[in-house]
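Worked problem 6 (solution included).
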Amino acid sequence: MPVVVDNPCVARAASAGERGSTPRTRRLAAHAVERQYGRFVEWAELSARCPEPPESETPVLREARRFAWMYPRQTPVIRDGELIVGARVRAEDGPPGGAWYPDGFDWYIDHFARNVPPDRPDIKGMAERGLISPQGSFNHKCVDYAGYIRTGSAALAGRARSMAEDRSGAEREFCLAFAMGHEAILHHAATYAQECTRLAVLADGPRAEELREIARMCSKVPMHPAETFHEALQSLWFAYMVAGDGLGRPDVYLRAFYEADLAAGRITPERAQELIECFLIKVHGDVAEGVVNVSSIQTMTLGGMLPDGKDAANELTRLFLRAVRAVRLLRPTVYVRCHDETPDDVLDLAMEMLAEGLAEPNFYGDRPIVEGLTRIGVPLEHARDYALSGCTEVVSPGRGNWGAPNGWINLALLCDDAIREAAAAGCRTLEALWDCVAAHIERVADACRDCNVWVDENVADTRYTATLLMPVCLDRCTDVAHGGAETYFGHWEAIGLPNAADMLYAAERILGLQAADLAETIARLDAGDPETFMRLSRNPRFGNGQPEVDAVAARLIAMMADALERRSTPLRRCLVLGHLAGGENMHIGCGARMGATLDGRTPGQTLADSLAGSQGCTRQGPTAVIASLCSLDHSRLIAGNVSTLRLSPSDFRTKAARDRVKALVRTFVSMGGSQLQINVVDAATLRAAQERPDEHRGLLVRVAGYSADFTSIGRTLQDEIIARTEAAG
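Solution. The predicted structure is:
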């Protein structure tokens, strides 16, 4: 596929009908894009009909009975030409359309304010202001796909039944629930084997043979271990339909199947890529109504280190990237893990994908993540085996129940509160200012811990389907939400670090230069004095490679991370810090509830959308942005973070230009950076898409850790993306 040399984003929208490397995948991909993936209609209908389990049973056994009754009763759906079968959506309701996000985001703050201890008015007050936003979600993890496709449901069900014989009470009920779930998965797969057999009789020629082969596979997997690459992909898809969420590292755990088939002459690279494309099309379509036009939670991690520290990139890594490039779909989100030994051609392929406007892949530096995970007690081999899920959350495949944010911390509001308190107390020294910041951090960290405890005890459900695919839970006879996994951490995501650093630096300048009284400056700011805003806007800003501001940001991150990591709960080893706004776009909602601040923000203005500087404030180019980012200790941001680099299409038009971007990525990784996502689009294209959306369907942008079709998101978010793109130049 040639690299686009004109505006790649326009070309991306124009080539929407050219997805897939074979006639089969072109048809399947076109169908995936042209049809609206509707509600999980049948599942809702089955749920309404399902007999209610006895109240006397444990929650996990009650959930197992419902799952065991409903799951095998789903109607098998097999589309013409599919080589990977299985679907959770029965009805398709017409063409895609509609905005994913509304124009207002601060309603999330009110929504999350429910997840606080009812007897803690102090925490409720924090939540209502958006200082903290505790979340009750337990998604964004990665189950043990690698172990499952090598074991199969029959063995897991048999083991659970055997364990139940030797146990009593809640442990026995858990083992029975585990067995019932896997037996339901087997019955579900059998319905697909039967349907393929039926369709094969009606078909002729090559398709009849394909259907007979798929019927054979569905009779074998996921009941038993997979033995071929095709079987492994089919087993993986059956598992994904149960648990969803992150796919982990498929180029690692599927590698042996591919290499064995290749050596035996059972497969060619071209056939393997077609199978991968079929699989990716299934992942793209597995989405509920309302999230059709965003990348949602479907993620895939490629490359990086193996558990022994060697490079993981292999031919399957390249095939997955080529398949993503060929089908050009919004899902799954692709992360390429990078370290010093990452092969050059893997990054070359990534650069070509970005040049074509795919908004994928994103890059993750291994070193700080491995360092951070080992520091908090994750074994080295497990730390090296990390994957990404959700937006950009770091997860431990099959081992840990940590991933989705337990909540957000509005770091900008925290620092604004501290600065105002210090000013009201007549603060005259930097030491007194930072002491006030430290006190506010400690109070917020206490609130985060207490919210974690309350949610774990009062909100968490069993996460039954994820539990089924984490055999460590069977070892402990406990579901994944209540202690069945190996490790638990509390993930808290900061919002607005660049704003916080800029305002603290401004306060330091006022105190250090004694140019004005801090309280007087704040008063003029609150009064809307234009001269004060103008003076503050001229201050050095984070994101421009200026050490004096970068040092403030680094100190703030270290203090917040230290405070969280010193705190634990009965379930969670410690709390950890990240920095991302998430699919909730918390930088918009949090900013909407804030007044003017010392970084020159006006009341209600959006906070920084990523670590890479506030909108309109990164004026020295991408190298300076990288310098500021890498001044931070990214090993303290192991809950995941987002750093968005905005580049022009001209930065990708030639091989030499792409090599410069590749060198920038390598520099970022070698200097200790973790996450980097790149938007390749100009503001003129975005404005044209805003005015003429029908001409720009498929224009992909990175938002706050996820990808979205620009034409499908609300006007507020569109304007915010345009503003930051224009500011990046």
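Discussion: Residues 1-16, 93-103, 289-295 have pLDDT under 50 and may be disordered.
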